[in-house]
Write a structure and sequence with these properties.
alpha/beta, Rossmann fold, GMP Synthetase, Chain A, domain 3, 3 domains, 6-stranded mixed sheet, 14 helices, about 25% strand, menaquinone biosynthesis, ATP binding
């Protein structure tokens, strides 16, 4: 297949590819020219092997990524929030030979035992005589991205061009594609939810409104005044946007707030419904190249709380005790499809555990109803077993969030000599909210064994770069 960016620059050269909040723009033709020029300069210091990229969202990062695709060099994305030691470990795990980075990380990368080059320095290099890729081998590795590592050492997930292509096409078949679409990217591009938007942009010919990070004021302004039609969010950022919206309404042209990153609290969905905010729930992960299950717009209100049905080229089952479950029976979510990774890089044991009989075992718990709609319950690793009873943290968090004045809630387990485990809650709340009030609220809505034994108040809860709650760090 012809290189996607080359083809897009040929088809719609003057269309906007990237737009920034300061008004700066880059057309597809300009993106193509800059990427090719940058590729010829990168080639002077790197010809083979993997390149790691360390950067916050920026046009420079977008250009550098597409440049690597012209060299057919797989990119290993590093999370900017990790330590230098963690970057070193991930570079070793992913066989990285060169690191390129945004200038602000110069001091941080100095101790890495690898050649490192800032984007700005590479721009000063003389162009080298090299042959840039004209066609994409869809089976080639495009990128490697590490899992969050919440259940152990982070694993590098392999993404081929075919994975990314399949994800973009399946998304369009579900959400549709409108001539005026503009997708706001505030998720980090070093996470799959952010990176997938870059592929959609080039494949669809759609502009991306790129923010360095989530900022509710900038996002609100982009939706209200900059013709943004779609945005990807997680529960906590969605909540902040709804608070910012207050009693207002989004323009009718804003057609989709794609909500992923875990089970969505029902109070949040009900709040969005009251404000006519077009929430579209989705389920996906790094291993599925972003979304693999998404709720269609037609079912958004009728199936409130569901992540939807598998995308057109994907399949889904719920397994428990090595069998497919009946409707409404909770089990592990297993999936397959062309957007699903072929495996973890150099992790044979993990691959054997995750891939069985052609199905990828996600480690997430959920169920499908009689119509085949998926409802995500929780991470299997977060499940609390108290006296033989299963407690899903997301269910308890949802009840806590339904109390007026509670902004964030996280539930995890502590050891208990009698019950094995019991739940405890960590809450960010407005002044005046007390633990006694929350316990009464929970007791009226939950079975006694699900009620948190203790409630701790915090100024903030631990979250990763995409603002997903990190329950394993709640007790830190």
């Amino acid at each position: 297949m012809e290189h996607w960016l080359t083809k897009r620059a040929y088809l719609t050269p003057d269309n906007i590819a990237i737009e920034l909040s300061n008004g700066e723009t880059l057309t597809f033709a300009q993106l193509y020219e800059r990427a090719c020029a940058f590729a010829s300069k990168v080639y002077t210091v790197h010809q083979n092997g993997h390149i790691a990229m360390l950067s916050n969202n920026s046009i420079d990062m977008v250009v550098a990524f597409w440049a690597c695709t012209y060299l057919n060099v797989p990119v290993v994305f590093l999370n900017t929030r990790l330590t230098t030691r963690e970057w070193q470990i991930q570079c070793e795990d992913a066989d990285v030979e060169t690191v390129i980075y945004a200038d602000q990380y110069k001091e941080s990368v100095e101790s890495l035992a690898l050649p490192t080059y800032p984007f700005a320095d590479i721009d000063t290099f003389k162009s080298s005589a090299c042959t840039l890729t004209t066609d994409m081998d869809l089976n080639s590795v495009c990128s490697l991205m590490f899992t969050s590592g919440t259940t152990g050492r982070a694993k590098p997930v392999i993404h081929t061009y075919h994975n990314h292509w399949s994800s973009a096409v399946a998304s369009a078949l579900n959400l549709g594609l409108m001539p005026n679409d503009k997708w706001l990217a505030c998720l980090p591009l070093f996470h799959i939810g952010g990176l997938s938007i870059l592929f959609k942009s080039v494949i669809y010919g759609m502009p991306v409104y790129l923010l360095e990070r989530f900022d509710e004021e900038k996002v609100h302004n982009a939706i209200m005044n900059q013709d943004v039609t779609i945005i990807s969010v997680v529960a906590v950022t969605c909540s902040r946007l709804l608070d910012r919206l207050a009693d207002g309404y989004y323009p009718s042209s804003f057609r989709c707030m794609l909500l992923g990153g875990g089970p969505a609290p029902k109070p949040l969905l009900e709040k969005a419904k009251e404000k006519n905010v077009p929430i579209v729930q989705t389920y996906g992960m790094t291993e599925t190249s972003s979304q693999i299950v998404t709720l269609s717009e037609a079912d958004a209100l009728r199936k409130l709380g569901s992540a939807g049905k598998p995308l057109f080229s994907a399949s889904l089952q719920i397994h428990a005790n090595n069998k497919t479950t009946k409707p409404n029976e909770v089990g592990e979510i297993v999936v397959k499809g062309p957007m699903v990774t072929s495996g973890y890089y150099h992790r044979e044991k993990a691959n054997k555990e995750a891939f069985r009989n052609g199905w990828f075992h996600t480690g997430d718990l959920g169920y499908v109803d009689e119509e085949g709609f998926l409802f995500v319950v929780d991470r299997r690793s977060d499940l609390i077993i108290s006296g033989g009873e299963n407690i899903y943290p997301a269910e308890v968090e949802e009840v806590l969030l339904s109390f007026k004045g509670v902004q964030e809630a996280g539930v995890t387990a502590i050891e208990d000599s009698k019950w094995g485990q019991v739940p405890v809650a960590y809450v960010v709340a407005n002044e005046g909210v007390t633990a006694e009030q929350l316990l009464v609220h929970c007791s009226a809505r939950l079975a006694s064994f699900k009620v948190p034994k203790t409630i701790y108040f915090r100024d903030q809860l631990p979250r990763n770069a995409t603002n997903k709650l990190q329950r394993h760090l709640l007790q830190s």
